[in-house]
Amino acid sequence: MDIKDFVAGSYKQQYKYKSFSPNKINHSYVWSDASINTLLEEANILLGQLDAYTKIVPNVDLFVQMHITKEANTSSRIEGTKTEMDEALMEKENIDPERRDDWEEVQNYIKAMNEAIEALKKLPISKRLIKQTHQTLLHGMRGEVKQPGSFRISQNWIGGNNLTNAFYIPPHQDEVEELMSDLESFIHNEELDVPHLIKLAIVHYQFETIHPFLDGNGRIGRLLITLYLVSNGLLNYPSLYLSDFFERNKGAYYDALTVVRSSNDLIHWIKFFLTAVIETSKKSIATFNGILELKSQMDIFIASLGRKAENGQKLMTYLYKHPVVDSKRTMEVLGVSAKTAGSLLKDFEDEGILVEYTGFQRNRSFVFNTYRELF
């Protein structure tokens, strides 16, 4: 089917409201718009370059965790949480009590992503994996009443206070299971001659249109983008996350999804999605360049520590994954006394690597500021 002839679906009359019933997507797609080919080529080239960086950066898993933390924070912020990146990196006891619910949601996202990436070693992207990931995402706090790990069995809506004034009403709950089965079949249909990034754009649109859960659909839908890239070998590590682009272009993001349903304009959404991949890949490549330059500087500093070098390297390794630290955490990580930890932290502070941010004379906390700013 030519993408220009795509029909998104139709509205169905329910009790006192109309829900949008999307057409199934598990079939082939072609296009005559040459600009899609240009965007697709650039996106694939940049993805390849990004993946190459993950192969040359030492201990890349450390830095991937920071990418995941940023994604968790940004994707959650799109949905209204107020946690900032600095807070997402802190321990729970250092978070103001009134902000801990938002902090918990970000931590759940980090856990959900890590568990899903690990699960890909044994499970394909599937309804089962999606439900497992959703259960982790909504575990505890505010998510417990939203049926974590289960497709919805009631009608939901987007915008407005109720079904009568909602901005968008997804398909009736009775359609969800069949539509999600079709989505899963499309993901794994190897007989379709559709490039992965085009397929992924369609998958993301369809998932958000189905809105299969009572809550967490936006976060799960954006998380699935990275899972798809990894599971299909476009990336060896989960190093690309589009939430930063979507947040900076939030209005255009929602408009591009909406215009598919309202005008059947799938081409506009695919171009928007490919542009997101291109721009985000460029930023991620720049981040890895910055990491390599910073790591080179840090290696020189560690070598200058003499007898403290071994502990200095252990602390630096910890900071690459958790760039917020205090004396107590340093003692635990290194297995040293308070005096030894304090002395090493002072060396890092004097060098400008760590910046104290509490202003306290005691119980001081530090941030690896130059590194944090890369993200």
Superfamily (CATH H level) name of the largest domain: Fido-like domain
Through-space gap between termini: 40 Å
Average pLDDT confidence is 92
Beta fraction of the residues? Answer: under 5%
- Globally, the shape reads globular
Poorly predicted residue ranges: none
Number of domains in the coordinates?
A: 2
Structural class: mainly alpha
Radius of gyration equals 23 Å
Would you identify the CATH architecture of the largest domain?
Orthogonal Bundle
Kindly identify the CATH topology of the largest domain. Fic-like fold
Summarize the amount of helix as a percent range: 55-70%
The number of distinct β-strands equals 5
CATH class of the largest domain: Mainly Alpha
Main sheet properties: 3 strands, antiparallel
Total of DSSP H or I helical runs spanning 4+ residues: 15
Can you write the helix and strand succession as a string?
Answer: EEHHHHHHHHHHHHEHHEEH
Strand order in the sheet with the most strands: 3-5-4
Question: How would you portray this structure in words?
Answer:
The mean pLDDT is 92. Helices cover 59% and strands 5% of the residues. It folds into 2 domains: 3-287, Fic-like fold (Orthogonal Bundle); 304-373, Winged helix-like DNA-binding domain superfamily/Winged helix DNA-binding domain (Arc Repressor Mutant, subunit A). The chain has 375 residues and is mostly helical. 37% of the residues are buried. A hairpin with an 8-residue loop joins strand 4 (355-356) and strand 5. It starts with 8 loop residues before the first strand and ends with a helix. The strands form 2 sheets. Strands 3-5-4 form a 3-stranded antiparallel beta sheet. The chain has a two-stranded antiparallel ribbon with strand order 1-2. It contains 15 helices and 5 strands. The chain has helices spanning 34-56, 60-78, 85-88, 100-119, 127-137, 173-188, 196-210, 217-231, 243-248, 250-263, 266-303, 309-321, 327-334, 338-350, 369-373; strands at 9-13, 18-22, 324-326, 355-356, 365-367. The chain is globular.
